[in-house]
Amino acid sequence: DPQERSFQERIDQGQKIEPKEWMPEGYRKTLIRQISQHAHSEIVGQLPEGNWITRAPTLERKAILLAKVQDEAGHGLYLYCAAETLGISRDEMYEQLHSGKAKYSSIFNYPTLTWADIGAIGWLVDGAAIMNQVPLQRCSYGPYSRAMIRICKEESFHQRQGFDILMKMVKGTPAQKAMVQDALNRWWWPSLMMFGPSDDASVHSAQSMAWKIKQNSNDELRQKFVDQTVPQAEYLGLTIPDPKLEWNEEKGGYDFGEPDWNEFFEVLAGNGPCNAERLGARRKAWADGAWFRDGLTAYAEKQAARRAGNEAAAE
Amino acid sequence: DPQERSFQERIDQGQKIEPKEWMPEGYRKTLIRQISQHAHSEIVGQLPEGNWITRAPTLERKAILLAKVQDEAGHGLYLYCAAETLGISRDEMYEQLHSGKAKYSSIFNYPTLTWADIGAIGWLVDGAAIMNQVPLQRCSYGPYSRAMIRICKEESFHQRQGFDILMKMVKGTPAQKAMVQDALNRWWWPSLMMFGPSDDASVHSAQSMAWKIKQNSNDELRQKFVDQTVPQAEYLGLTIPDPKLEWNEEKGGYDFGEPDWNEFFEVLAGNGPCNAERLGARRKAWADGAWFRDGLTAYAEKQAARRAGNEAAAE
Amino acid sequence: MAEATVADAAVDPTALFEFLLRMGDNTLILGHRLSEWCGHAPALEEDIALANTALDLIGQTQLWLGLAGAVEGKGRSADDLAFLRDACEFRNLLLNERPNGDFGKTLMRQFLFDAWHHLFLNALRLSSDTRIAEIAGKASKEVSYHLERSRDLVIRLGDGTAESHGRMQGALDDLWPYTGEMFMNEASDAVLAAAGVAPEPAGLKTEWDALVGETLSEATLKEPAEGYMQKGGKRGIHTEHLGYILADMQFLQRAYPGATW
Amino acid sequence: MAEATVADAAVDPTALFEFLLRMGDNTLILGHRLSEWCGHAPALEEDIALANTALDLIGQTQLWLGLAGAVEGKGRSADDLAFLRDACEFRNLLLNERPNGDFGKTLMRQFLFDAWHHLFLNALRLSSDTRIAEIAGKASKEVSYHLERSRDLVIRLGDGTAESHGRMQGALDDLWPYTGEMFMNEASDAVLAAAGVAPEPAGLKTEWDALVGETLSEATLKEPAEGYMQKGGKRGIHTEHLGYILADMQFLQRAYPGATW
């Protein structure tokens, strides 16, 4: 197919694909799936962090967390807009989220149990997300690439804020330090799982790579994340909960244990600690808000009719 | 009317009237109103105290408060039963409560804002209630009289427990003592209002007195309550929030200021701090529980049908 | 903190402290209520807007309570005042601690408060106490945007569907008895007014009535009769809801005394 | 507190302490949840019954946590343990901290727990630790009544109307993944079992299955497939709900440290 060949050539040359241009159906579908999943993650991701806004320990921390959650909702908005350029509506995407057809990042199915979890999410979860997202700034699809550039800037700010929460706590009382270690113990493995299982064998991945939707293998990114994070944990005086973790001079990186992929697939299948609650909260928000959205629509229609009426009268 | 005359004679002789005996319509109506209002008060009264069960400061205090609230629900039950002997169903009484036709004691439209309020309710509100209820043990209507005998015994136990909460607190930290004084400041006047406005002029009261449904005037009981309570407040080291309060040697009792009857009538009219919430909570409990009550009824009917079927089959 | 100006010398510091608590507690408690919505709003734009409003209000809280602590002169920080006072020491309006209810009720509460907040802050920009004037100047920019937004939504939902109209009317009727407190003068208000620090609350009623009345009329909502008004918040006599708000809000500071975060 | 018996000498006090926390935290947290219903139940008889059950559970908490404090030997009272630990130190089953939901869900949670509680307490009456046997003896009388009641209501509502059936089935399906934790052995359980202090949790599964299965069948409810089971409570990894429970429950002790009540 010459159309597909020329499409691939443009990608190979590093050109951006823009909304109204021709693209293979698979490219469109893959992007819609990936961008909407990313958008859903931002939205669902408000819930675990929102859980601690009302209990933030100082006014300053409360303000920072509010600003962060607001940013995340904003990221959701950019991403839904980017996906809409591919010919799907935001309501359709919500529908897929609510029906369970579309996924969101499994990490948000874990609970936030202490204030240290808010720090750990910033440090580890945003850290892993950035690792995934930095290459996406160079994604072949223009609107997605531009959204990611904006998002990455804010995410790295969030990551620093998360690290700062933990810095303050490890310098605090023994109870605070224990809280941080406990948070690391609970978030470490789920963070490693954020990169997905090893993708050596995935055809899916190969195609995404060729299309420059995906640029690195899951294992590469995971390795990079571990190598970046271990020294930070040491700086905080924390112990990574992995007895197999060890510096490997030869490869210039850390060796580390295998995450419990059984747990990963259980969470993916809906059996995580908070799946039912997260999805339930989103469904309820949507259902409870129907009257609100309908009210605004009705008002807009009335206003349009009034304007039309006025114009007709003026003629 | 000879029937009415002989009825009055029996009452004058101190005889008890029992459910199936003849009684004047007015007597029946007055009793239904009074007993159901009293029952509703016990039920609604669960709410302000229930507000602190989850926050009781020790396990012991939590257990005592649970037991107390349970007793109150039990009192509600006796009283509804007593009222039912007069030919009204419990559901009809609920309906009157929920529609606002029947009243409950206005005192429960005030909020419980601190743990000291739980003490103050026991000491002052139960204290005032007992003052009202003790004479009712000699009420001419048998079932009501017997219910009151049982209730008064438990109430005076509750009153001692309330006083004990406050005793402990006034011996505690300055903050605890301030909490107690604050509670007294808020509950003093509403407690005095529990006896109702001065009833010099009320024809209603005169008839109730003749029927031995009511045995003392509101002002008599209020005076008795003040005379009993002031020394207790002194014992606790508290100041009664009434600048006019003064011992009157001549009458052998205290002189005291006039409650703000304007406030009383506002609360009665539905404008107290918690009227909407109290009645709303009861209505919601009833509405939300409809499926539960219907389920039990349906099961009972099925069981009856099964028994009938089995009997028929056995014949 | 800011330095003392000529005006404060004349003003009873207790009256000033109480006044600043009222300002800061209003923003703190309403900010708390709004943040309870996080992730549960009926549209993504609303999640963003609520978080933004809450953020503004918490920022204002830092300023008002910071100044309150400075005026008190006992070394209490804004955080100490926010996290280590019990309910009876809070001075916010009862309106601001009302439960969120549905989104319409949250918006109506916001509008009724914003309208007052906007007018009051505007007046405070002329305060003889430059510290107050400065905070009011910063806050009033934020709040005029809050008002623009809540007013607009009240109109659109009031004049939307029958259901949205009914919900907004219900919210208005429920919340109305909590609006009177905004205009009740406390003893200390005369002192502050005489010193030019802050206007007497009662003086704002006419303007508020006009602003609210006009909005409700455009929203096709029926303004309730004046009626009985609830009060107590400004004197520390709150509703049963505030205790639960504080139990959550203050948990960490209470459970880990002296820790820094 | 009770004196040491022969049995304790042989048992790791940490294992025993953990075990006693599990017992006491289960009753404390479930008692808390039940008391949230106060005044809101669908019938007056239910208000009375729930308050009564909560009262029993709080009484049992005093005994279990009192003994836990004695075993720990650091001078902590039952109240210290109830009111001054943070969530990660709590050892209750996740099931018991689940939100109340509607009354059917509250009843189903109660039944699933009562069935286990009843069987476990019965076994504990034979504990080699006489202090435990004594508490179990007292508690099991109360709990067999709880079970009788919750079992009866589950049957009547399951086999009631279509709506009550649907609600009970929904409650069962929602809560089922939280039942597996009751039968998961922790490392310390083998130690306790070897010393005859307490049976290993896994050993009660068959009896519980039979009791629950028979009840559900009589209730015309469909027992869910075994499926994935949630866990964590026994190790202090809870749901997001526990923090809010504790914020309320512990408020006074946290806000007024050292005060006596």
From TrEMBL, chains C, D:
Gene Ontology CC terms, in alphabetical order: cytosol
Cited InterPro entries: Aromatic_CoA_ox/epox (IPR052703), Ferritin-like (IPR012347), Ferritin-like_SF (IPR009078), PaaA_PaaC (IPR007814), PaaC (IPR011882)
GO terms of biological process kind: phenylacetate catabolic process
NCBIfam families linked to this entry: PA_CoA_Oxy3
Protein name stated in the entry: Phenylacetic acid degradation protein
Species of origin: Sinorhizobium saheli
